[in-house]
Amino acid sequence: MLADIIENWKIYCDESNFVGIGSTRKVHRIADYVVKIHVHPIGYKQSKRELEVYNVMMQKGLANFLAQTYYVDESISVQKYYQPIEMIENQSFEIDMKKNLSIIPKRYEEVLDLLDKDFDCFDLKDSSNYGLDEKGKIILIDYGMSKDLYKNQWVPLAEAGILPQIEYDLCINCGVKKELRMYGDNDDEKRCYECGKG
Ligand SMILES: Nc1ncnc2c1ncn2[C@@H]1O[C@H](COP(=O)(O)OP(=O)(O)OP(=O)(O)O)[C@@H](O)[C@H]1O
Ligand SMILES: [Mg+2]
Ligand SMILES: [Zn+2]
Fold first, then answer.
1. What is the pTM of this model?
2. Measured in angstroms, how far is the CA atom of residue 138 from the centroid of ligand 3?
């Protein structure tokens, strides 16, 4: 299965199995896997780092809430698929140890602390970076961005309008208040991804 996906992902990934898009990677589901297509070189850097972090944490026996990462090359990464976390009023939210206790996995704080300090991982609290496993516990699906990569490479590209920044507002097409992808300060096209803005 995995070898088949790696060889034929271009044939398999289409509109029908699209599951999500971030600023640097576009994601499709194939059976119990996702293919994350790198739409910018920073996406490749994030994917490489995810594989590295996953392998190290696996060896330490601490990968229990990291999305399993199987394979990375310049074009794609292959991970295990996890159910999405529902947004609240079309917006992601900050994971709270106390408020969200029922979905918090074992050793959450300890592992999060390690990801923060040893791996310099960025944005470990936002619900949009998590999925849910079979037991309904949160799984980190987006852990390859470091604070250094964010500050020194991602932010300048977002400010230049090359990578999108997320803004919460009304889509002029469907009228739903949701997360919009905005490119630089002069972008005033408030249309959502689903309504055709890439
Ligand atoms: N393992 C997974 N299982 C299910 N869905 C996933 C998985 N990985 C990613 N997704 C979906 O694809 C979207 C984009 O993936 P991801 O956040 O990794 O990309 P990104 O470009 O790094 O995003 P960001 O702009 O947040 O840095 C996610 O918000 C999520 O909806
Ligand atoms: Mg993300
Ligand atoms: Zn819309």
1. 0.95
2. 28
